[in-house]
Each structure stands twice: as C-alpha cells, then as structure tokens.
Design a protein that fits this description.
Distance between the termini of chain A: 23 Å
Helix content of chain A: 40-55%
Strand content of chain A: 15-25%
CATH class of the largest domain in chain A: Alpha Beta
Oligomer: homodimer
Bound molecules: nicotinamide-adenine-dinucleotide
Number of helices of chain A: 8
Chain lengths: 205, 205
C-alpha cells in the first residue's frame, strides 16, 4: 500500500514534467521506463485508481494528472506544520515553502526563545504553546519533527494530542503513537551507514 | 540484504545507547523490543555476522558492539564528500561533521564562487575542479549529492569518474550509474506526499 502511494506520487511528478515539455500522451511502457518500474506495475497501479489507457494512443497525460490529483485530494491544499527550526528544519522550510500548490507549510515552532517570532523564508516561527491554536485554525493534519532525539517523543505527544494524523520524523528515535497516526521515519544517519557499507561490499541480492 | 544492513546499523546504535546506560548484557527479546523487530529476526541477523548469545545471560553488549564494528569495518574511518553546499547540504554538513568516529566528512564542493574557500562548521568548501585531487588524497568512496535536480546527473558522473562507489542522493531524480556503484535515494518530497496521503486515508495493510 505504502509503496503504491510512493509510485503514484512519482508518476504524477514525472507526468507533470512530461506535460511541461509539451507531451500530450504517454504509453505505459514509456512511463515504466522513466519511473523505473515495469509496464505491468504501472498499468496495475493506474487501473487501481480507475484509469485506463487506450492501446492506440496511450494515456492522455493531462487527464491522468487530473485523475492522480483527485486521488491525492487536490486541489484542496493540505496544511502542515514543522517543529524544530534548527539546521535541518530551516533547510526543509526553505524547500517546502516553495511548492505552494500542493500543501501549505503554515508555521514552524521552536522552544528556543531567540527563534520565536522570527520568519524563515516567510514562514513564521512560534513558541510551542501556540501549536494547539494554529493547528485548530488551519486544520493541519501533518507535522514534521526536526527536534533533537531526546525531545522528539514529547513533541509527537503534543502533536497527537492536537489531532495531527501524520508525522514525518527526522529524529533518530522510534516514536510511539496511536494506531490512527501514520509516522514516516527518515533516518539520514542510517541511510549514510548503508551507503558506506555498500560502497565497499557490493550488494549481493 | 539492504534491510539486513539497516537493521544491523540500528542494533549497533541501540546497543551503544544501552552500553552508555551501564548495561552489560541484553537478551535477543530485549533488543527485539527496542528495535521493533522480532526476536527471531534479531537472532538470525546476529548469527549471520557470526555472533551467538548464551541463553543464561544473553548477548554481551560490548562484545556484540565490537563484532558489529568489525562487520561495518571499524575502526577504519571512511571518508566522504558532499556536493552542493546549499540549504540542505549545510544542514547535513553540520550534522555529519559531529560524529567523527564513524566517518570523516573531508570536504564539500559547490559551483557557486561565493561559497568556494569558505568553511561550514569547520568543513572546507572547494570548487568542483578540486574533486579529483581530494578524492584521490582521502580515498573517499562515498559522496552525498545535494545539488538541484537538473545538475545531479552530471555531478554523479563526475563522482563515478573519480572512483566514488556509493552515493547518497537527495536530488529528486533517478541517477544513472554503473552496476558497481550503490545509490541510496532520499526523496523528501515523496516522503511528505506519502504522509499527507496517509494522514487522511489510513493504511489498510
Ligand atoms: N541536520 C541534519 O542534516 C540531520 C540529519 C539527520 C538527522 N537529523 C536529526 O534532525 C533533528 C534536528 O537536527 P538539526 O541538525 O536541525 O539540529 P539543531 O540542533 O540544529 O535543531 C534542533 C532545533 O530544535 C529545537 N528544539 C529542541 N527541542 C525542542 C522542543 N522540545 N520543541 C521544539 N523545538 C525544539 C532547537 O531549539 C533547535 O532549533 C535531530 O533529531 C537530528 O538527529 C538531522
Ligand atoms: N532543502 C531541503 O530540505 C530539500 C528537501 C528535499 C529535496 N531537496 C533536494 O536537495 C537538493 C538541494 O536542495 P537545497 O534546498 O539545498 O537547494 P539550494 O539551492 O539551497 O542548494 C543547492 C546548492 O547546490 C549548488 N550547486 C548547483 N549546481 C551545482 C553543481 N553542478 N555542482 C556543485 N554544486 C552545485 C548551489 O550553488 C547551491 O549551493 C535539491 O535537489 C532539492 O530538490 C532539498
């Protein structure tokens, strides 16, 4: 399920690039080629969201993008917040603040009084006590956690208490959350260790 | 294979934490509990690197850490470089420069003349033409790519030309490299899309 969602999000990005180049149609084997998946998987994924191509012309790119947008609940823009405006947090703010069509990073939060009431790339940074009020006002359902490991769980608890349903966690700890909350962990140190290992021992399988 | 390496790296980190708390032994079911994997998987992973615990006392933590360090080729410190000292690159430099025992971030590189010959958290930033000389001098085998998408492939080509065998790629493009080069892609935008999706539609399986 999670892998299917990743693939669909990737197809959507690639199709937008194709559309940007002026292409109007694409065959499943072509989308397979640029996405790195087999044509069979591409066709099955798209059939799963109710989209069928015509053998003669392939998939109509604009219609397929619309279909994917509907699937990902566009054009309703989803709101998200970020907690921990440190080095990584600020890099993410700079990056995620640009793509305003897909989601809306409404605010960052930090426990450092020197960072509160500053703006990073136009994104306001508030103290933690403002989290309940801002989540309620924006109906934000997703939070990004970029605080040190020792504080990540308490931040997660605060987000969950305030109805956050999805967390993108960069702290190197395993968070405990209710079943109804989805957590995606991005463990960069572990990713680096993996690359260091495989740079010497080539993948055998 | 890749998942096994991730788990072994995680066990090592958790065991170091345990050792830091003064614990000398741990049972497989305890390591299972804190790592999130089953005891059977933990035991199998450790047997695969030649380590066996005693039922009475469990695994001896220090000996197991040493065994994992040998597996990950410690104490030989691996050198790595980073290309693209932008927002994300600088956050990574600040983070990776700290843990000097495991690997050594020897330099960053950037095409922006204003960034060349600056130091970020003590890590020197050079122009791209210095890549061959620095890789050769340090025997760096891993490169981190944090340049814009449109330049990622040419940077990858340059690294591969200079014998880099492992790449941690943050640019949202699929890199083309020889079979002998390992690439780990970290696609943060796709991770966020996944969380946005599952925050609304709960995982069904
Ligand atoms: N920088 C990276 O590239 C990188 C890589 C891998 C993992 N990480 C992880 O991401 C997290 C952040 O890393 P960083 O390098 O940005 O650290 P950082 O120290 O630069 O930033 C942490 C920020 O969180 C704030 N903070 C601390 N406790 C808080 C709390 N309870 N509530 C709200 N804000 C709080 C701090 O004031 C600071 O601004 C850490 O868990 C780190 O392990 C970072
Ligand atoms: N910032 C984030 O949180 C974030 C999140 C997801 C993905 N990314 C990806 O990471 C990459 C970097 O993002 P960023 O936000 O740091 O961008 P940025 O624009 O702040 O930094 C890019 C840096 O790369 C340098 N550069 C450009 N072309 C180069 C080349 N050919 N060789 C060497 N250096 C070159 C630039 O001078 C700049 O310093 C992008 O591909 C972006 O899509 C970033």
């Amino acid at each position: 399920m999670e892998k299917t969602i990743e693939r669909l999000a990737l197809y959507r990005r690639l199709l937008k690039n194709q559309s940007g180049k002026g292409n109007t149609h694409i065959f499943s084997h072509q989308l397979a080629g640029i996405s790195g998946y087999s044509a069979a998987i591409v066709r099955r994924d798209l059939m799963n969201i109710g989209y069928y191509g015509t053998p003669r012309h392939g998939y109509e790119i604009k219609a397929l993008i619309d279909c994917l947008n509907v699937f990902f609940n566009k054009p309703e823009v989803k709101s998200l917040i970020l907690v921990g405006a440190g080095n990584l947090g600020r890099a993410l703010i700079a990056y995620f603040i640009k793509d305003k069509t897909e989601y809306n990073l409404i605010a960052a939060f930090d426990s450092d009084p020197l960072k509160v009431n500053l703006k990073y790339n136009g994104c306001p940074c508030y103290s933690l006590e403002k989290i309940p009020e801002l989540i309620a006002a924006s109906q934000a359902s997703v939070g990004i956690i970029t605080v040190p490991a020792e504080n990540a769980q308490s931040v997660a608890d605060l987000l969950v208490e305030n109805k956050i349903k999805g967390i993108l966690n960069f702290a190197p700890v395993s968070l405990t959350v209710p079943e109804s909350v989805y957590v995606e962990n991005v463990d960069l140190a572990l990713m680096l260790e993996k690359v260091l290992y495989f740079s010497v021992h080539h993948r055998e399988g």
